[in-house]
Amino acid sequence: MDLGIRGKRALVCASSKGLGRGCAEALAEAGVDLVMNARGAEALEQTAQEIRDRFGVEVTTVACDVTTPEGQDKVIAAAQGVDILVTNAGGPPPGLWTDWDREDFIRALDANMLTPIALMKALVPGMMDRGWGRVVNITSQSVKSPIPALGLSNSARAGLTGYVAGTSRQVAPSGVTINNLLPGIHDTDRAASLDGGVSKKEGITVDEARAKREASIPTRRYGTAAEFGATCAFLCSQHAGFMVGQNVLLDGGVGNQTM
Q: I want to staple 209 with a disulfide (CB 3.0 to 4.6 A). Which of 8, 39, 82, 198 is the partner?
């Protein structure tokens, strides 16, 4: 399918690896030029060059922590005029509800709620002026089905979801759509970290922890970054202009909900 976005330009955050990279590659395959961001300059440059070589698109890199005001300023300066925004940041660590203090919640809100909002506020007005734009926020399956050990993530991402629910309806008349993409467990460093935590807690190997988690997924496997990226690219396409304020769940069927 031709996604109809060849020649567009996108900012993809946290895109040197994992789900962010999957999104960047899928957009590049559709002919979209990229502004790529990640904290690690070496991994970011390597990924960017691989995408240039493979897809022949222009790629600008911005190595910084986008969850900080300084990082946001750098990314926003490089991304002026983008047509597509994909927000993404690693989730806060797991723990017990008794472990977290105010500072822990502030860090989670900064990374997983306030950073996407800051990027939208900076870049969506230009999309509205041009009459076309796409925003996809990578959030979490925990928005629909909270995960007890991820209370910080549950809280911050639910806050972003509420913000998008109202904002997306306000910008839609200008040709801009905002939607959220909710990953379940995908084969990324984040999954490996969670499996490592289960391994340590339960006294089993990491492979056993993974097998145990896979058995709880109806598809009996982890998702891939490539299929996640393909879904993101569709949400950024010309064909998704009637999707507004939706929370698209990619979890292999783990969430057992009617709606």
A: 198
